[in-house]
Structures are given as structure tokens and as C-alpha cells.
């Protein structure tokens, strides 16, 4: 039995911070923890502009708690997998952007959770794996869709067939993470990004979170049609008109060359 809650939640201004807090188990996820996690995600959707997910202790998340794993009938495994899908879909289809601040082991279900977020920041020393294949089981938390879309099916197959582990640098090159930081600086970088994103125009944000992922599943002409509809909706909003007027008057932010940190 757990001594207490396994999830910590804190609202800092417009940004909610959700911390996986089971460090003695390397933040391995059991069913009770997943239920706590889901309640915290829903709270963030209701009261925050951005959500950051991080892990306490030496790693982000070591995946499914195998100590809870037992012999199950196929139907039980199926419904358990669907429970994970529904939970992570709260991130993908929710109303606010989600940033994963990663360090240490980000493997199995931990990688599946990170892949369901919109942005991933990885510290030096973070590593990624899908050890299910070497343990005689198959992924069940959405990796076949979310991880494969980020890495490509071939790279994911390599990880499952051979047990290959990706470093933070390899993951960044492969498109799994968007930002690399020195060890110990991932949370600060995630906080900086969260504050920047929190100021986005609501209709633009709606397009990025809701339209863009769906367009990837559409035929080309359908996707372009939805893009035009989203552009019409966003650009006709009051906030867009105000920001475009500021830009035309020289008051808006200018695009500049990226810093080395970006």
C-alpha cells in the first residue's frame, strides 16, 4: 500500500505543475497512481493555461509498475490498455498545451506518457526505451500511435525488437524531443516555455491543439480545407486583429535568429 498520494499538483500563476511522486518506485505507474494522475490532469484543464508534467527523484518515469502485473485474461489486458489510452487522450485532446520535463529513465509507459504531451524537454542524461518487447509483452499505453508518429515505425520497431536505448541527443535528432538542456535545467526551461505559450491567442491555440493533429490523419485536400477554415476563424478574432495592428504599427515582437539555448 502507498503511504500517501503519488501525484503532487501545484498551480503557479497560469501554469499547473503535475509531479509524479513515487521516487522509490522510480515513478512506476500503477492503477491507483494513474487515477490520481488523471484527476490532476482534469483539474489543470479546468484552471490553468499550460500544464507541465515532471518526475520526482532520479527519473521521469520507469513505466508500468510490473509488481502489480499479474496473469490476466486477454479481455482484462485489453480493457487495462484502453484505460491508459483514455487517460493519455486527456492530454492529447485537452484544452491546454502540455509540456513534459524529462530526466533520467523515460521508458515504457513513461515514454508513452511523454509522447502524449505536446512538447518534450529533455535534460542531458535522459534516456528512452520500450523494454516491453524484451519482456515478452507488447506496448499498451498508446506507443503504437504516439511514439511511432514521433520516431517513425522503423525506429520504434528497432527499440522493441532489440531493446535499443536512445540517449537524449539521439531522441532530439529523431524528433522525439524538441529541447535539450544541461542536467538540472529542464524544469527551468519548461517553465520558460510554459509562460511563453500561456500568452497565445485562444483561437490560434485551438487550431494548434485541435485542428493540427487531426489534419495529419486527413487526405491532403481535406486537411487543406480544414486549415483554411481554422485560419478564417483565428484571423477574424478580436485578439488577432489587435496583435496584427500592433505588428503593423511596429509594436509587435519581431522574428529573430534563435539563441544557442533554443
Describe the protein.
Helix 1 packs parallel to helix 2 and helix 8 runs antiparallel to helix 9. The chain has 2 domains: 192 residues, Alpha-Beta Complex (2-enoyl-CoA Hydratase, Chain A, domain 1); 47 residues, Lyase 2-enoyl-coa Hydratase, Chain  A, domain 2, CATH 1.10.12. The termini are far apart. Strand 1 and strand 2 form a beta hairpin. The protein is globular and about 65 Å long. Helix content is 46%, strand content 15%. The longest helix is centred in the N-terminal third of the chain and has 19 residues. It is of the alpha/beta class and 262 residues long. Strands 1-2-3-4-6-9 form a 6-stranded mixed beta sheet, with helices on both faces.
Percentage of residues in strands: 5-15%
Which CATH class of the largest domain applies here?
Alpha Beta
What is the tally of helical segments? 10
Number of domains: 2
Low-pLDDT segments? none
CATH superfamily of the largest domain: 2-enoyl-CoA Hydratase, Chain A, domain 1
CATH architecture of the largest domain: Alpha-Beta Complex
What is the residue-averaged pLDDT? 92
* CATH fold descriptor of the largest domain: 2-enoyl-CoA Hydratase, Chain A, domain 1
Q: How many strands, which pairing sense, and closed or not: the largest β-sheet? A: 6 strands, mixed
Give the proportion of residues in helices: 40-55%
In short, what is this structure?
The chain has 262 residues and is α/β, with parallel strands linked by helices. It has helices at 31-47, 74-92, 109-115, 146-151, 153-162, 168-174, 186-198, 202-215, 220-235, 238-248; strands at residues 7-12, 15-20, 50-55, 98-102, 105-107, 119-123, 127-129, 166-167, 179-181.
Amino acid at each position: 500500500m502507498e503511504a500517501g498520494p503519488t501525484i503532487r499538483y501545484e498551480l503557479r500563476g497560469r501554469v499547473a505543475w503535475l509531479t509524479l511522486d513515487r521516487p522509490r518506485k522510480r515513478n512506476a505507474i500503477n492503477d491507483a497512481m494513474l487515477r490520481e494522475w488523471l484527476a490532476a490532469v482534469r483539474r489543470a484543464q479546468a484552471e490553468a493555461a499550460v500544464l507541465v508534467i515532471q518526475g520526482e527523484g532520479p527519473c521521469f518515469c520507469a513505466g508500468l509498475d510490473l509488481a502489480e502485473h499479474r496473469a490476466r485474461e486477454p479481455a482484462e489486458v485489453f480493457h487495462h490498455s484502453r484505460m491508459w489510452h483514455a487517460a493519455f487522450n486527456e492530454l492529447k485532446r485537452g484544452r491546454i498545451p502540455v509540456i513534459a520535463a524529462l530526466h533520467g529513465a523515460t521508458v515504457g509507459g513513461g515514454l508513452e506518457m511523454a509522447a502524449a504531451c505536446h512538447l518534450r524537454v529533455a535534460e542531458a542524461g535522459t534516456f528512452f526505451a520500450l523494454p516491453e518487447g524484451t519482456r515478452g509483452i507488447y506496448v499498451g499505453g498508446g506507443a503504437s500511435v504516439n511514439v511511432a508518429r514521433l520516431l517513425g515505425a522503423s525506429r520504434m520497431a528497432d527499440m522493441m525488437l532489440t531493446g535499443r536505448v536512445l540517449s537524449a541527443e539521439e531522441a532530439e535528432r529523431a524528433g522525439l524531443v524538441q529541447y535539450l538542456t544541461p542536467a538540472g535545467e529542464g524544469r527551468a526551461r519548461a517553465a520558460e516555455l510554459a509562460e511563453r505559450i500561456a500568452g497565445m491567442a485562444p483561437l490560434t491555440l485551438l487550431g494548434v491543439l485541435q485542428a493540427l493533429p487531426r489534419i495529419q490523419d486527413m487526405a491532403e485536400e481535406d486537411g487543406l480545407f480544414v486549415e483554411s477554415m481554422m485560419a478564417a476563424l483565428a484571423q477574424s478574432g478580436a485578439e488577432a486583429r489587435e496583435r496584427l495592428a500592433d505588428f503593423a504599427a511596429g509594436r509587435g515582437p519581431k522574428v529573430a535568429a534563435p539563441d544557442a539555448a533554443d
